[in-house]
Write a structure and sequence with these properties.
Elements lengths: L3 E8 H5 L4 E5 L10 H21 L8 E10 L8 E7 L1 H18 L7 H11 L11 E3 L4 H9 L10 H10 L2 H5 L3 H11 E8 L2 H10 L9 H11 L4 H23 L2
Parallel strand pairs: 2-4, 2-5, 3-6
Antiparallel strand pairs: 1-6, 3-4
Length: 263
């Protein structure tokens, strides 16, 4: 653990809206895999906590909702003044929160129900503040980034797409609670200030992967091939070797999917 930079409790606002803070999904990570079941479980938990706070009439003093650990590896600076972090554990939750922000933005951004503070929080979750060359807050270093970017910028409910980004954003936008939020600004403020994560930031990727391997993931269970891949990558610093291991992991993933289709 000596290679860890920090361990801190951080809210959604400080995690996903800080200026100059960018996240990347390493090539060796499995794609965004959450289905409606996992998204709904997260949303239901959040909405129940929010409704309890409303009933108690103490939004500002309501209990925090702990959303698990996020394991990050800080990169050597390569994007100017921005801090770049690899997401080693937490991709599924952070992308889902980004889709939630994007859904709220698409539904209400042009409505008088949303104030400037709420609009800024949602916008900063999706993109950095820099106006000349804004970066997406989360970058996917694989062929899924185009799909993710399209869903955030050019989403259309009628243009059905066969990827989890479109499916889950559509599910979120059609969720009963989203349609029935009475005070949108109070909900968004509660969401960003009361959702908390245990952020573990490591100085190098190998240490972060080792921590990832001993943590329990909130959503889908890891397959043995996922664990093997992470273990192998944690034991090498050679980029070409890491890429070869990643390609092998993709082969195992395709084989697993093909077998499941024929069961």
């Amino acid at each position: 653990m000596s290679n860890c930079i920090s361990v801190e409790l951080i809210n959604l606002k400080n995690l996903l809206t800080q200026d100059g803070r960018i996240f990347e999904i390493p090539l060796f990570q499995r794609p965004y895999s959450w289905k409606e079941e996992q998204v709904n479980s997260l949303l239901e938990d959040i909405f129940q906590e929010y409704e309890k706070a409303i009933l108690n009439g103490k939004i500002e003093e309501s209990d925090e909702y702990f959303c698990g650990s996020i394991v990050l590896s800080k990169q050597i600076n390569k994007k100017g003044s921005n801090e770049v972090f690899d997401i080693i554990d937490g991709q599924q939750r952070l992308i889902t929160f980004t889709l939630l922000a994007s859904a709220l933005k698409d539904l209400y951004s042009n409505s008088n129900r949303m104030n400037e503070e709420s609009r800024n929080l949602l916008n900063l979750t999706i993109k950095s503040k820099e106006s000349k060359d804004p970066y997406f807050r989360i970058w996917l270093n694989n062929n899924h980034h185009t799909d993710f970017k399209s869903i955030l910028e050019q989403y259309s409910a009628s243009k059905k797409e066969e990827n989890n980004y479109w499916k889950n954003k559509t599910f979120i936008m059609q969720h009963e609670f989203i349609k029935e939020i009475k005070d949108l600004n109070i909900f968004i403020k509660w969401l960003y200030y009361n959702i908390k994560f245990n952020q573990i930031t490591c100085a190098n990727q190998n240490t972060a992967i080792k921590i990832f391997l001993v943590l329990n993931d909130r959503g889908l269970k890891l397959f043995p091939s996922d664990i093997l891949k992470a273990n192998l990558i944690s034991k090498t610093t050679n980029k070409d070797t890491k890429l070869e291991i990643t390609q092998l992991g993709k082969y195992f993933s395709r084989t697993r999917k093909n077998r499941s289709k024929h069961k």
